[in-house]
Amino acid sequence: MVMANVTTTCGFLLMGFSNTRELQILHALLFLLMYLSALAGNVIIIAVTTLDQHLQSPMYYFLKHLSFLDLAFISVTVPQSIDTSLTGNGCISHGQCMLQVFFFTSLAWAEVAILTVMSYDRYAAICLPLHYEAIMDPRACEWAVIAVWLSGGTSGILYTAATFSITFCRAKVIHQFFCDIPQLLKLSCSNDYLGVIGVAAFMTVLAFICFISIAHSYIHIFSTVLRIPSAEGRSKAFSTCLPHLFVVSFFLSIGIFEFLKSTSDSPTAFDIMISLFYTVVPPTLNPIIYSLRNKTMREALRKLLLDGEFTKKKTFLSYC
């Protein structure tokens, strides 16, 4: 009865990770460390790819937008979860939950779209080098990024409209640290969640098309790379493709597993850990994967931070 009264006054109740105060503080500290790491890493990539004139190719242009997406994606769920753990108050209003669903689904789909675009960029660069500049000209890259953001927004609108057309007739308790759609569907006691299933089925088909496109690109990429006579050339090609392939495989496999697995009324620690792997881990690891394994990125970062070029360009930009 108390829980029902709480959810009536605050909209939804996020149960989070634990009711033990010490574990709540530990969770807040760990999430804060991961959030600050993701924030620093993605901001560095955005700064380096913006300021360094040698990193103005399509690959780094798309990487910059991936960092924007990662930064926004982790900001949708983690700060709210940290606040919930520190205050011990899991209340989230109906409007806040709706916005969280919208931005989460928008950015999740935009990540899939930008990773697909990045795989095609690597395909064009390695398999069609003579036509690369014509295929990936600046205007085409701009339209590709616009399509990524628009498709993400469309996905968010569809999911949000379908999810919040549901009549919630149970206690609005969400056994997660954010407004997770599968958990929201369990609060319905009728069949009015079929619209969400329809949207999910439609987006799953699109995600499968993206997966086929990515797989097609990498089959051609690896067959081309293996024919390169120079060991240095093969190493350079693999150094740019393997990190991207790892990110794509990790993000898609965890996302597909999350959607296919059944949801229980009382999720286990394993269920919450899986949600961490597609909400928190990718935005935190992506900067490390793309920057530390990329020699060009490391050199650009060193020049900007140690050689004073960052300060010079910053001063120049302030005059402009």
Automatic annotation (TrEMBL):
<dbReference type="GO" id="GO:0004930">
    <property type="term" value="F:G protein-coupled receptor activity"/>
</dbReference>
<keyword id="KW-0472">Membrane</keyword>
<protein>
    <recommendedName>
        <fullName>Olfactory receptor</fullName>
    </recommendedName>
</protein>
<feature type="transmembrane region" description="Helical">
    <location>
        <begin position="193"/>
        <end position="219"/>
    </location>
</feature>
<keyword id="KW-0716">Sensory transduction</keyword>
<comment type="function">
    <text>Putative odorant or sperm cell receptor.</text>
</comment>
<feature type="transmembrane region" description="Helical">
    <location>
        <begin position="98"/>
        <end position="120"/>
    </location>
</feature>
<dbReference type="Pfam" id="PF13853">
    <property type="entry name" value="7tm_4"/>
</dbReference>
<keyword id="KW-0812">Transmembrane</keyword>
<keyword id="KW-0675">Receptor</keyword>
<dbReference type="InterPro" id="IPR000725">
    <property type="entry name" value="Olfact_rcpt"/>
</dbReference>
<comment type="similarity">
    <text>Belongs to the G-protein coupled receptor 1 family.</text>
</comment>
<keyword id="KW-0297">G-protein coupled receptor</keyword>
<dbReference type="GO" id="GO:0004984">
    <property type="term" value="F:olfactory receptor activity"/>
</dbReference>
<feature type="transmembrane region" description="Helical">
    <location>
        <begin position="25"/>
        <end position="48"/>
    </location>
</feature>
<keyword id="KW-1003">Cell membrane</keyword>
<comment type="function">
    <text>Odorant receptor.</text>
</comment>
<dbReference type="GO" id="GO:0005886">
    <property type="term" value="C:plasma membrane"/>
</dbReference>
<dbReference type="InterPro" id="IPR050516">
    <property type="entry name" value="Olfactory_GPCR"/>
</dbReference>
<feature type="transmembrane region" description="Helical">
    <location>
        <begin position="240"/>
        <end position="260"/>
    </location>
</feature>
<dbReference type="GO" id="GO:0005549">
    <property type="term" value="F:odorant binding"/>
</dbReference>
<keyword id="KW-0807">Transducer</keyword>
<dbReference type="InterPro" id="IPR000276">
    <property type="entry name" value="GPCR_Rhodpsn"/>
</dbReference>
<feature type="domain" description="G-protein coupled receptors family 1 profile">
    <location>
        <begin position="41"/>
        <end position="290"/>
    </location>
</feature>
<dbReference type="InterPro" id="IPR017452">
    <property type="entry name" value="GPCR_Rhodpsn_7TM"/>
</dbReference>
<keyword id="KW-1133">Transmembrane helix</keyword>
<keyword id="KW-0552">Olfaction</keyword>
<feature type="transmembrane region" description="Helical">
    <location>
        <begin position="272"/>
        <end position="292"/>
    </location>
</feature>
<feature type="transmembrane region" description="Helical">
    <location>
        <begin position="141"/>
        <end position="162"/>
    </location>
</feature>
